[in-house]
Amino acid sequence: MTETDDGPTVLVALSNPRTESALVALAGALARHEGGRVLAVHVVTVPDQTSLEKAAESRARLDGSSDELLSAAVADAAAFGVPIETKTVLSHRGIEEVFDAARTNDADAVVMGYGGTRFAGGRVEGSLDEIARDLPCDFLVFDGAQPNPTDVLVPTAGGPSSDLSAEAAAALRDVRGATVSLLHVVDPGGEEAGREFLAAWAAGHGLGDVDLRVEAGDVEETIERVAEGYDLAIVGATERGLLSRIVRRSLAYGAIERLDTPVLLAERPSARSLRERLVGGR
């Protein structure tokens, strides 16, 4: 498979054939938008009571299922015209292995799925708090299986993770033809200032031509209500680490869980974009 050093690496962590197409579609759109490549990693989580050496003895069976999953990823990535490399990893550690793969392969972004508190097919480690405080790169965690969202909502109040949300939305718009709307929630009476903020924020993120919505009310309730009209909501992490908030089932996570709309959660460890990191060094 062809590799390139000319653009960022988007690592997509795969574990479930049901969500493979959607995750690769997101990774492919990001890679295409930024002129990068996709690295598809299949993390095979081995039970603690089974040694990795013992698991490796069943490699033929594992390789068969892994090859099928990764072959599908290669085929799906081809639709975006981006280079793709694939790897299979046996691990006891689940999410920790994804972090290690991101660091080892110098990834600029990770795309992965979640289901409740189980990431990448693995268990939740006790050291998750410590891990989440030191993200190696941008993280995009998808709850859904739709590979081609057409109506995308991006709630924003500013901040680095909202910047990542904007980049993901721009990639889906420019590469997949999705229609994007921005939402800014304000206190009653703050609508005028909210419109000024959102217009400036949209223009500064290359989204000046999208639909702008300013709503007054409770942030979580408003996002729940407005998101019902869309087939994807891209939500940026706020004060706490994204992975920690999901595991702890914080209020923000509870609101996201109640949404019928698929959610893409975005967390950025710094204010630098993929392109800025590529040009300015890591």
Automatic annotation (TrEMBL):
Superkingdom, according to UniProt? Answer: Archaea
Q: List the SUPFAM superfamilies hit by this protein, alphabetically.
A: Adenine nucleotide alpha hydrolases-like
The family database entries (InterPro entries) matched by this protein are listed as: Rossmann-like_a/b/a_fold, UspA
Domain UspA per the UniProt entry, residue ranges? 9-141, 152-265
Q: Name one Pfam family in it.
A: Usp
Matching CDD domains: USP-like
Which family does this protein fall into? Belongs to the universal stress protein A family.
Q: Per its record, how is this protein called by name?
A: Universal stress protein
